[in-house]
Amino acid sequence: MSRTVLITGATGTVSTALMDALRGADVALRALVRDESKADGLLERNTEVFIGDLDDPRSLPPAFAGVQDLWLLTPNSPRAPENNMNALWAARRAGVERVVRLSVVGAAHDAPNRSGRLHALSDAETERSGLRWTILRPHWFMQNLLNEAADLAATGTFATNLASARIGMIDVRDIAECAARVLLDDPDRHHGQTYTLTGPRSVALHEVADAMGLALGRPVTYLPVSDDAKRATLLGYGVPAWIVDMLEEYAQAYVTGWGDLTTDTVAGLLGRAPRDIADFARDHAAAFGSRTPLPSV
Ligand SMILES: NC(=O)c1ccc[n+]([C@@H]2O[C@H](COP(=O)([O-])OP(=O)(O)OC[C@H]3O[C@@H](n4cnc5c(N)ncnc54)[C@H](OP(=O)(O)O)[C@@H]3O)[C@@H](O)[C@H]2O)c1
After folding, report:
1. Strand partners, 157
2. In this model, does residue 264 exceed pLDDT 60?
3. Mutation probe of ligand 1 site: the residue of 76, 114, 126, 175 with most atoms within 8 A of C-beta
4. Contact, 288 vs 157, CB < 8 A?
5. What is the pTM of this model?
């Protein structure tokens, strides 16, 4: 009989890619969503939808009943450890066998950013949950660049406070394929493992601009800006202050070289190299306002 996988964060970037990666696999997909009006796309994906909120433990038991595998993604929020705790408790009570948790690169109690420290709390709890567990710690998502798409399409430039930091950035599609690999393998195979997932090389933002320019067929310029300038822009777009602070902490760590690392873990799990920034740029050229999108390979 197929195993049932409960997907949390089901309307978000990583979990959507995970459901794509699991398409056609011999598993029953179930999604936890907070807002029923966002469930239409999930139903079209042949996914059973349960309404529940990781802030509210009382809302969770129906979604967890009969589940073997939990994909646990917590939002970027100071309440993330509480959300993780609520999900793990519901999983334990329902007899879920395995949890595969999305953490973050460098998660540690002494990480230089609050997101890394919050994830460390949830990682520690997951390791002691009594369930079989695997933790994925992905690096900076290439898909974060989609936040710059409107500026880039309009002006041919994009601005960040990452200076000349080198970052082992990863395409979310590769994170999703690694998560799918773990979920489809025997529950014992990856139990107790923490995988740091990166792209194939550390890339600076001016190299990202070069890759974008090549994919778009026109020049793209990267504009380094100060923390204060980036902060003002993000707050102006209505990004919550907590997120702005967290992003600034990451940027400050990255400019010291904290993110200049790669691993061969994706290749080990998938049997192929991870996608390069050039692949990401080419595959997303339309989103960045390409006049002549190049074909994907
Ligand atoms: N961005 C990066 O570079 C990076 C790198 C490594 C790790 N990460 C980690 O990746 C995670 C974010 O993943 P993502 O970008 O895929 O997320 P996302 O696109 O921001 O989506 C967040 C998801 O969580 C759901 N959610 C929020 N609050 C919830 C609650 N109280 N109960 C149930 N569901 C809730 C949202 O549902 P609604 O549709 O209802 O809002 C949405 O489906 C974070 O843990 C972050 O630390 C990010």
Report:
1. 221
2. yes
3. 76
4. no
5. 0.97
